[in-house]
What we know:
This protein is α/β, with parallel strands linked by helices.
Amino acid sequence: MTSLRPPARSGSHPVRRVHGFAIALLAGVFACGEDRPGAPAREGGAVSVLGEAPEFALLDQQGDEFRSADLRGKLWVADFVFTRCTSMCPRLTAAMAKLQGELSGKPLWDQVRLVSFSVDPEHDRPDVLAEYAERYEADRVHWTFATGTREEIWGLSVDGFKLPVGSQAGDADQPLFHSDRFVLVDRQGRIRGYYPALEPEGIPSLIDDLNAVAREDEIRVRWPSGAEPRVEGPIETNRLVEIQEPE
């Protein structure tokens, strides 16, 4: 599975922490147009929890307030783009549109949201983002383009998602650099994987993990300590089943 693991949490073995940070730097720091694969996100067949997604309060392409709290209970995929970008961003947004096409009409689609953060918020005002979204036939309910201040957006990228962003002096066509990774976030607001969206395996890997994470909450069974769980008959999605103590 191709994904980029951010630095290990504090309290981990110091050698492992340095190694994880080195992977993040090597795999994540690149200018627009460069693609590099990341490290696996799965451990023992399960999709890893890599950290907490950052909180935010921004504006969407309609000029309405858009908060991280609006995404709670949803599975969501994030990326960073800007509308003046002429190299990597059109390909990234086309990849997000492809993801939208792959998922729309599927039962899971109602649980999914797509979020594209603009790293050029001074230029990418809501009306500019609305036009950009229309160009890629973005579903208004499911796909949000977000803008705010440069400090807010760049802080989300670097401090929140551990992805690089910055200015490239002297490059009029490509004044900013940012990551090509799509980020998968679960219903609890936890980062579950980083995917190289422009690599052939990026979107398929993301969809595989999205489905795996979605299944985590499909059946939740709780039983008393020491009792053997036994559930008879079909179980509805997201239904909590209580197993009582035997008499």
